[in-house]
Fold this protein.
Amino acid sequence: MFDAYKRFFRFSGAEKGTWYKGMAFELLRSIFEALQFVALLIVLRALVGQNMTGATAWMALGIMAVSVAGAAFCWYLAHNSEGHANYRMCGEKRIHIGERMKYMPMGYFNAQSLGSLTAAATSTMSDLESMSFAVIARTVVGMIRTTIFSLATMCFDWRIGLVFFVGMLLFLWVNSRLLKKSRELSPGRLTAQTKLVDAVLEYIQGMSVVRAFHGDKAAKQILNNTIKETENQNFKLERKRIPYNVLEQVVLRVTSVLAILLSIWLFLQGIMSLFTCLMMVVSAFLVYSELESAGEMFFMLPMIDASIDRVEEIDRAPRMDEGGSVQVPKSHDISFDHVDFSYGNRKIIDNVSFTIPEGTTTAIVGPSGSGKTTLTSLVARFWDVNKGSVKLGGIDVKDYALDSLMRNFSMVFQRVYLFNDSIENNIKFGKPDATHEEVVAAAKAARCHDFIMALPDGYDTMIGEGGATISGGERQRLSIARAMLKDAPIVILDEATANVDPENEAELQAAIEALTGGKTIIMIAHRLKTVRHANQILVVDHGRIVQHGTHDQLIQQKGIYADFILNRKAAIDWKINA
Ligand SMILES: Nc1ncnc2c1ncn2[C@@H]1O[C@H](COP(=O)(O)OP(=O)(O)OP(=O)(O)O)[C@@H](O)[C@H]1O
């Protein structure tokens, strides 16, 4: 049990001191509350000695007043410290998780379910936030108070004090059995919770598919099953808890009754005075009050422990930055040297070598699933290669600190992600200190300004999560504005014009041209025009570079490229004819 406290305080990091301060105020509060004994002692002594006077009553009242006021003040200070420590600790951990995720290899996200990561940052942290404040504070207070009250009673009669103390030890022993059970079941409860988050996320994200395919029944069934599983896990935990909690209460009550009986027996034997006997009887009702109310909280200690496990699991994930340092490349030449790469066991890139000189345009073409996007991801070190090396300016990308590597790239993907924030902040994402004028200039160059100004709040318009409230073409152009503002020397572009209507295509093309002027460009190309004018074309098939050259060179050869060009021409003709 004490390991759980030790671990919790270690986990609380910078807030450890504030937690300790809170505990110190709790201790002081218990001392103030113990003053009730003194008041009680004065009143009982006067009553037994039949010399109760107004002055005695006032003195007892004064001590009681000091006890109540002192305890209330300490209670306020303790809650203040504990509350601050708790919320700051959880806030800092959430930020830490977000920061940590930035430096995880993308493979980690593949291996972990979205629910597990979401749960770690949301429900697990909420559990910690709501439980630790109550559990840590109440259980520690319960033990401190019982110890102080037992010691206070020992000053009057060591035997009764000892009975109270042994009662507490027995309570803690039952508690350790209870914690064992809770420790066995807590991870299962967290796993069920993660599955539930997973199922809810999937249900919401797949809502359009659910509706389009009338899959409501099947989707609901999956959700209902996970809800049932979570219920079962929680019930299981409750069922195990209740008998132990009852036993704990029985231990405390029986000990109190024993202390009363022993006091009366000692009095009847003439070993204890009437005054002490009365004191002990009253104490029996006070000594365990806080421990009794904290009883159910002990059970949650392993839940806190399991939650800490879940959060620390994220800390144990590998970091991509390892070994890297801040580097400024002398040139922006890019080279792949005999690179192999697999997603898990599935080899996707197979012995690929090529170079991209600074300031040139390289088009990557190839069939769907051939590995084009994967190649661009390796340049920006979203993944680490299994064999060979990827270099920027002659330095292996692994030797760059992640931030100093990413500074060199602007990226525009087919699947654009926009944050649930204002349009202005979404554009500023790559350059947070940009001025409004710079944002507007980038938006104008990326052909976004007009549609932004037509929105109700202009640049302050909030976009829904993922950019749900604007069209696909608008999303694309906003992501180009974002890349323009970043103004990095290398532009990686998943040219997305293939699926865009002609009106949007012209706008998008103009935006892309503004973005790419004078830069080193790597583009997954779908348009004939861009492919034709590229300085070099890499044709990828099954993870290998099967053709390599300029348009004029490749068009002469039989193969994927010539077929690709023919298909594109046919598509354009089809469009014109249609
Ligand atoms: N994160 C991932 N985890 C596991 N497999 C992946 C992942 N991303 C892509 N793949 C697989 O790797 C292969 C290459 O994918 P990639 O996206 O690089 O192809 P592509 O040539 O860009 O395809 P497209 O033109 O259809 O976008 C595909 O078979 C794909 O299923």
Residues 192 and 230 are 5 Å apart (CA to CA). Residues 216-268 form the longest helix (53 residues). The mean pLDDT is 83. The chain has two domains: 2-316, 328-406+529-578.
